[in-house]
Design brief:
By secondary structure, the chain is of the alpha/beta class. It has one domain. It is built from nine helices and ten strands.
Length: about 250
């Protein structure tokens, strides 16, 4: 069935890119961005619409549990795939912190940059300090920011340790942290084909996901972890524990 899925999904994804991407770019223009669309700005509406449509064209049924908190929030999620950003964008336009390599990925990197992604050079202490400063600035402006505290994509078998340093941004900005549990699969089970395979390129992973059978894309917005002075390690551990429980891993 994989060739048939390529035949059906491939042209639709290309059409979405050709026709919808220019609309998203227009929406991100400062002159257009603030036009109201219901309770959202035009840019927020378009980012969510574009991402939601893309996820569905790849064969996923989006299932949301809970609600994203409004206003300035630091969302922290487990990390499985490049599609995580699009899945979370489908629910709310968010500025993400992501590895600097993403900026060089075709299409996704260009769109991520236009959407305000904050890039981090992994392994660089100076880069992390700059990232925290920029995250605080965004939060203080009332904008939501998304973080993947594991520091990279995992295998989907467990949630790795959350790095606590980035939680300092929520403390400095005095905003809540909302854990978000992500899963792709069937009947509450993670599909092992979603995460990057060792040494796999972005394009190879994209093609593999495009040809996969249809499955659920779950996004669970969990109870917020309030910012507590001098407790970023506790905040990181509690955020991870809530995600672990939501996914049913039982290794909190």
């Amino acid at each position: 069935m994989r060739p048939l899925r390529y035949l059906l999904r491939g042209p639709l994804v290309l059409l979405h890119i050709v026709f919808a991407l220019p609309l998203a770019v227009i929406a991100l223009n400062p002159l257009m961005a603030k036009i109201p669309v219901g309770r959202l700005r035009f840019d927020q509406f378009m980012v969510s619409w574009w991402s939601r449509t893309l996820v569905r064209l790849f064969g996923f049924r989006i299932r949301r549990f809970g609600k994203p908190l409004p206003g300035a929030v630091m969302y922290v999620a487990n990390h499985l795939s490049w599609l995580d950003i699009e899945l979370m964008h489908s629910q709310r336009a968010i500025s993400f912190v992501a590895k600097s390599e993403i900026a060089r990925w075709p299409l996704v990197g260009w769109l991520a940059t236009r959407a305000g992604t904050i890039y981090h050079q992994r392994g660089s202490s100076d880069s992390m300090a700059s990232v925290i400063t920029r995250v605080v600035e965004r939060l203080q402006k009332g904008e939501p920011v998304g973080i993947f505290p594991e520091g990279g994509t995992g295998t989907g078998e467990r949630v790795r340790t959350f790095h606590a340093r980035i939680f300092q941004a929520a403390l400095d900005a005095q905003v809540p942290v909302q854990p978000v549990a992500l899963r792709y699969g069937h009947d509450g089970h993670q599909d092992p084909s979603m995460p990057f395979a060792p040494g796999e390129s972005f394009f190879a992973n994209l093609l593999r996901i495009l040809g996969n059978p249809s499955m659920d894309a779950e996004v669970h917005f969990l109870e917020a972890v309030e910012s507590t002075p001098d407790a970023r390690r506790r905040m990181a551990e509690e955020s991870r524990a809530r995600i672990v429980r939501a996914l049913g891993y039982g290794d909190a």
